[in-house]
Design goal:
single chain; alpha+beta; eleven-stranded mixed β-sheet; two-stranded antiparallel ribbon; 16 helices; 15 strands; globular
C-alpha cells in the first residue's frame, strides 16, 4: 500500500466513522496506515532507542512510552528473577497494556515473560520452574499495595472431582494462595476415594503457567489486575531448546521492556516455528469465534479482530477498530474489568484497604456518569452504589460478589451493544463476524 492508497483507505474510514459518530484523528490514522504498510518486507523486530523497549515492528506502532515507568515498576513485582548460568528471562507487556497508544481505557496490566532454564534434564528444569514460581508466589503473597490472587501451574494428572466440579485429566490447575502455600489441595477420585494433588506432581507437567495479582496504582489512583504469563523453555547441555508446554509462543503482541534482554529473546526467537504467525492468527480467530457465538463479548472480540486485521493486511478495518478503543463508551470495558478487581481483593485480610476500594468505586461511578446518559446510566450507577454500600459496610465476600456480578452484567451489556453496533455497521467486519456465526461452535 503506497501513500495514495493509504489516503484512499483513510477516506473510506473517515466516511464510515462520521456516519457512525466515531471521532477519528485523521492525521494519526494516515500515519499508522503508511507506517504499517511500509513495515512490510522489513526486519520484523525493532528497537525504540529512546525508551529502550523492543518488539514486533507493527506492535511498537501501538505502544506509548508515556506510562513506561509505571509498567516497569509493576514488572518488578510480577517478573520471575534471572539466575546467572541457570535462568535467563525477557519480560514484556502484552494485551491492551502493549497497545497503550490506542487503548485509552485498557483492561488489565498483562505481562508475558520468556523464561529459559538451563539444566541437565527436563525433569530438573521443571523442578527449577516449580521452585521459582513457588518462591515468587510466597514473596508476593501480599504487601503494601498488592495481593496475590491465583496461580496457574500444572495439568491434572488424572480426572478428579474438586469442590464439586469434575476436572479432566490434562486440564490446567488453578491454585489459590493457601493451596500454593501448602503445596497441595484435596480432590476426590472417580471411585469416590479422597486424594491429594501436590505442587511436585504439577511440576512434572507444568503446562499453562501464570500468576495473577491485584495491585494499587498510585499514578492513576486506582486498582488494577496484574498478571504474568510464562513461556518456559528448557535449554539442554547440547544447546537444544525445548518448550516445557510443547509450544514456543510467537512475539506478535509483546513489547519487551528492557533492551538488555535482546540476546535471550534473539536466541529463543530462532526456535519459533515459521508458522507462528499463522498459528497466532488461528488462535485469535478461535477466540473471536468464542466471543461472538458462545460467551458473547463483542469488546473482547473487537480487540482480537484488531490484531487479526493488522497482521493479515486488512489495514482499513484495523484502522477503524483503532478508533473504537478511544471512544468514551469503550471505557466501560475498563469499568467491567475494575469491578472484578474490587471483587478479587474484597477480603478481610487483604492489604488493599477498604478506603482504596471505595475510592476506586467512586471513580467508576464518575466514569459511568461521564460516558453514558439516560436509563443506562441510572441503572449502572444504581448497581455501583450498591457495590459501594456493600464495601462500606464490609459485608461478606459472598454478598459482595453478588453485587459485583450484578454491576458487571449491566456494564457488559452496554459494552456489547456499543461494540456490536459499531462493528456490524462496517460491511466487511459484519461479513467477517457472520462467517463465525454460521460455523458450528
Amino acid at each position: 500500500m503506497v501513500d495514495s492508497q493509504a489516503s484512499e483507505a483513510l477516506q473510506r474510514i473517515i466516511e464510515s466513522a462520521r456516519r457512525l459518530g466515531v471521532e477519528l484523528d485523521e492525521e494519526e490514522a494516515l500515519q499508522w496506515l503508511t507506517a504499517v504498510a511500509a513495515s512490510q518486507g522489513m526486519e520484523q523486530i525493532a528497537v525504540d532507542t529512546s525508551s529502550g523497549v523492543f518488539g514486533h515492528r507493527v506492535s511498537l506502532l501501538d505502544f506509548s512510552p508515556q506510562e513506561l515507568g509505571r509498567f516497569r515498576q509493576i514488572g518488578k513485582l510480577v517478573a520471575l528473577p534471572d539466575k546467572p548460568g541457570l535462568v535467563e528471562t525477557a519480560l514484556a507487556l502484552s494485551g491492551s497494556a502493549a497497545q497503550s497508544k490506542i487503548q485509552t481505557y485498557p483492561g488489565d496490566a498483562d505481562y508475558f515473560q520468556r523464561v529459559n532454564i538451563r539444566a541437565e534434564t527436563r525433569q530438573q528444569a521443571c523442578q527449577i520452574l516449580a521452585d521459582l514460581m513457588h518462591e515468587k508466589a510466597m514473596q508476593t503473597e501480599r504487601g503494601v499495595g498488592y495481593q496475590l490472587i491465583e496461580v496457574k501451574f500444572g495439568n491434572y494428572p488424572y480426572t478428579v472431582q474438586r469442590d464439586g466440579r469434575s476436572m479432566a485429566a490434562g486440564s490446567p490447575i488453578s491454585w489459590n494462595v493457601a493451596e500454593v502455600r501448602k503445596k497441595q489441595f484435596d480432590v476426590t477420585l472417580p471411585d469416590g476415594s479422597p486424594s491429594v494433588i501436590t505442587w511436585d506432581q504439577a511440576a512434572q507437567d507444568p503446562g499453562w503457567c501464570k500468576l495473577d495479582w491485584v495491585v494499587t496504582d498510585p499514578e492513576r489512583g486506582q486498582l488494577a489486575n496484574a498478571s504474568n504469563m510464562l513461556d518456559v523453555t528448557w535449554e539442554a547441555p547440547d544447546g537444544n531448546i525445548v518448550p516445557l508446554d510443547g509450544y514456543l509462543d510467537g512475539y506478535f503482541q509483546e513489547v519487551y521492556l528492557e533492551a538488555e534482554s535482546i540476546p535471550i529473546f534473539a536466541k529463543l526467537a530462532q526456535h519459533i516455528s515459521p508458522d507462528a504467525m499463522d498459528d497466532y492468527v488461528k488462535q485469535l480467530e478461535k477466540e473471536v469465534n468464542k466471543y461472538v457465538t458462545r460467551d458473547i463479548n463483542y469488546g473482547k472480540a473487537a480487540k482480537r479482530m484488531y490484531n487479526v486485521f493488522r497482521l493479515t493486511g486488512r489495514y482499513e478495518e484495523a484502522a477503524y477498530l483503532r478508533e473504537l478503543f478511544d471512544e468514551p463508551a469503550s471505557m466501560l470495558y475498563q469499568v467491567w474489568s475494575l469491578i472484578r478487581t474490587i471483587d478479587d481483593c474484597a477480603d478481610p485480610n487483604s492489604p488493599i484497604t477498604v478506603d482504596q476500594m471505595l475510592a476506586q468505586t467512586d471513580q467508576l461511578i464518575l466514569a459511568v456518569i461521564n460516558a453514558l446518559e439516560g436509563a443506562e446510566e441510572t441503572e449502572i450507577v444504581r448497581r455501583l452504589l450498591r457495590l459501594r454500600d456493600a464495601l462500606s459496610r464490609q459485608k461478606t465476600n459472598e454478598q459482595l460478589t453478588a453485587e459485583a456480578e450484578a454491576a458487571r452484567a449491566e456494564v457488559i451489556n452496554i459494552v456489547n451493544n456499543f461494540f456490536y453496533e459499531k462493528l456490524t455497521a462496517i460491511p466487511a467486519i459484519k461479513q467477517y463476524i457472520e462467517g463465525f456465526e454460521l460455523k458450528p461452535s
